[in-house]
TrEMBL record:
It holds the Pfam family FUR. Belongs to the Fur family. This is Transcriptional regulator PerR. Zn(2+) binds at residues 91, 94, 131, 134. It comes from Clostridium liquoris.
Amino acid sequence: MNNIAATFKEKKLKLTPQRIAVYEYLKSTKEHPSAEVIYKALQVNYPTMSLATVYKALKTLVEVNLVQEINVGEGNFRYDGNVCPHSHIQCLQCGRVDDIEDVCFQDLNEKIAPHTDYDVLTNQVYFYGICKDCKNCEHN
Ligand SMILES: [Zn+2]
Ligand SMILES: [Zn+2]
């Protein structure tokens, strides 16, 4: 909570209840929800919050680097309250997105350095596959 309050104060942004709600929701889940999913989940406690407000809150949170935007290539962005660098894997069947923890791809930056004249600062690696639940379904 301190994190968002301090960041918003520093950036001179208004800390609205909606922005806090979106941030806290993302902090509480590892499911990488889309804006629509966040919107539906917050309807319970914030019945007057519109989808547009959720989008605006997400945009602001991404801009101040409290939330990570993930484009898994489905034309539908997902959001992650964990802004530490980590990789993601998406299920090609049900679309769920999970974190890949404990593997660091920082050495990829060094690997591609000879192939570009950019100073390579970061990378985003996505993996695709079939999740455990979908795999189990197929076997039934
Ligand atoms: Zn799946
Ligand atoms: Zn993640």
